[in-house]
Amino acid sequence: MRNYYPSIEPYNSGYLQADAEHSVYFEECGNPQGKPILFLHGGPGSGCEPYHRQFFNPQKYRIVLIDQRGSGKSKPFASLSNNSTWDLIADIENLRRKLKIEKWVVFGGSWGSTLSLAYAETHPENIKALVLRGIFLCRPSEIKWFYQHGAHHLFPDEWDRYISIIPENERHDLVTAYHKRLTSTDEKTQLLAAKHWSRWEGATIKLKPDLGLIERFTADHHAISISRIECHYFMNNAFFKTDNWLLENISKIRHIPATIIHGRYDVVCPVENAWALHKAWPEAKINIVADAGHAASEPGIIDALVTATDEYSAL
Question: Going from the N-terminus, what domains does the chain have, and what CATH number goes with each?
Answer without folding.
Answer: 12-139+241-312 (3.40.50.1820), 141-238 (no CATH)
